[in-house]
Every structure is written in C-alpha cells, then in structure tokens.
Specification:
With 299 residues, the chain is mainly beta. It folds into two domains: 2-133, no CATH class; 136-286, Leucine-rich repeat, LRR (right-handed beta-alpha superhelix), CATH 3.80.10. Helices cover 11% and strands 34% of the residues. The protein is built from four helices and 15 strands. Strand 6 and strand 7 form a beta hairpin.
Length: 299
C-alpha cells in the first residue's frame, strides 16, 4: 500500500481546467458570463480541488462532479472510474475555494469495507461543472458572512419588507436610501443590479469597491463616511454624481477613469492636490473646507 502511494506521490497529478461560462452550457442553459479556473490534484490518498474565481462578482456552484480512477491496494487491481459530486460551493470574487475529497466521500456501487484504495488519476469534466453568477439568495445561504455583512442584509430585508433573501431578490432598485444606519459593509447591496442611486450618507462605510459591479449605478452619496481610497471608484465608469463631503478621502488620483462623472463633492476633506482635474476639465467639483453640506438633487 505504502509503495503504491509513494509511487503515485512521485507522479503527482495536477490538471487545470479553464472554463469560459460565456460559452458553456449546463442542461441547455447558457450560464452567466464568468470565468473560473479549476485545479485538481491527487497524491493517491485524497483529491484536492481548487476553484479559482477570476471575476469581479461571486460564483455559486450547485454541483461539481470529480471523476477519479480507483486502484485497489496492495496489488494494483484497477477498479474503474468513480464520480464524486461536490454540492453548493460558494466562491467570492477574485478568491478561491479549496475542497478535499477523501475515500469516505467516494460513491461506489459496491461496498469498500475492508478494502484499501488509492487514486491514480482525477479530473473534472466541464460538462459536470454547474456554476453561475451568485444571486442574493445564494450569498445569504452559502457564503461565509461576517457580522458587518449580516447587519447590512438585515437592513436590506427591512427596506424591502422581506422575510427572506429569496423574497428580497430584485426588490432593491431605483433610488435607494440607507441613511444613518451604522452600515459598514456594502457587499450585500452589490447583488441588486437595478439600483440607480444610493444614499448611504452618515454610515460607517470604509470601502465601496464591491459596488463597481452595479453597471447602472449613476449616483452615490457617501457624505460623512470614513471612505479613504478614491481608487474604489475607478471601475464605476457610468457614475455621474459622487458625494464625498466629510469623508476621509485624501486625493482624487485617477479621476480621469470616471468618464461619465459630472459632479464631485469633496468638501470638508483632506484633498489638497487638484491637479488631476486637468484630465477631467468638464467636471464640477466642490471642495472648500468650509463648504456647507449640500443635499444632492438626485434624491
């Protein structure tokens, strides 16, 4: 047994499968545009599966089937292919999920009691990967949530008068107000693509990078939030109005990336260098330290 395992360990299998879900189909349905990298490694004792999400949005895999070739020890008798399903795997954007499949997880028609098996080969067929862009319900049910995310989810359920994430799907849209609620995480809001304007003033938000996947977002009011990095907004190419009065922003470097931006309020902040404005001459900027609070006309 040890000799077989040692031999297989020397010939470590590492297979990589790149999936382009923009073209892939599952049960005749085109999966949401995404790309994922799947790596399968076997040292004879177990199968390690790495699911790498290279997208800016989360992925939910309802099922992934791992096919493994089994050899009975100690004589190396071939036992054929075994298929092992992995259910309900959640992968956050630009992160990975690591799954280890051992002997106990392998489904076989005959009993393996008293027998010793090793894996000589493992693979994943793209037809057996059932993944899609994660929904708000998937996120609530299968993602590992921290307290800040759970708090924001509760406020969204209240805002939409919903008793569950499934019932809240799609209800947050248009002009959304979530003022002065003590919010720290905006991640749950990113699952609502029909949001056009967000009033998040007077919260405790430090980052809004997750909101960049809301392509229809036109206005964000983050007045009096401890936002620090202007780079959080670089991918929001359709954003037209941005209110950062009283925030912790210290510069507006990269403002030229916001092609659609028409109005920016950085009053009562530590922004001192406005030279990047030369790259965006048509932008209306309010920046004086003594500037009084301005109620956005978008609301």
């Amino acid at each position: 047994m040890n000799k077989i395992i040692k031999k297989l360990s020397l010939a470590l299998l590492l297979s990589t499968l790149h999936l382009s879900f923009a073209q892939a189909k599952t049960n005749g349905v085109v999966i949401e545009p995404a790309s994922m990298e799947v790596r399968v490694a076997s040292d004879g004792r177990s199968i390690d599966v790495s699911l790498i999400n290279n997208e800016d949005f989360d992925l939910f895999c309802s099922q992934i089937a791992v096919e493994s070739e089994m050899i009975k020890a100690p004589y190396g008798e071939w036992k054929g292919w075994k298929k092992t399903p992995i259910f309900n795997t959640y992968i956050r954007s630009n992160e990975s999920a690591e799954i280890s499949v051992g002997h106990a997880h392998i489904k076989t028609k005959e009993s393996l009691e008293g027998d010793k098996f090793v894996y000589s080969f493992a693979k994943i067929n793209s037809n057996h990967v059932h993944c899609q862009k994660a929904s708000f319900e998937n996120y609530c049910d299968f993602a590992s949530l921290d307290e800040e995310e759970e708090y924001t989810i509760d406020k969204i359920l209240q805002e939409t008068n919903s008793t569950s994430c499934a019932k809240a799907e799609g209800k947050l849209h248009g002009n959304v107000r979530l003022r002065a609620l003590g919010l720290k995480s905006v991640k749950p809001i990113s699952f609502f693509p029909r949001v056009l304007s967000l009033d998040l003033q007077n919260n405790k938000i430090t980052s809004v990078k997750d909101l960049s996947i809301i392509e229809n977002l036109r206005t964000i009011n983050l007045n009096n939030n401890p936002i620090e990095l202007f780079s959080d907004f670089w991918k929001m190419e359709n954003l037209r109005r941005l209110y950062l009065f009283g925030s912790s922003i210290k510069d507006i470097e990269g403002i030229e990336k916001l092609h659609s931006l028409k109005k920016l309020n950085v009053g009562n902040t530590d922004v001192e260098d406005f030279s990047p404005m030369k790259k965006h001459p048509r932008l209306n900027v309010r920046y004086k330290k003594i500037l009084k609070y301005e109620e956005p006309h978008a609301w």
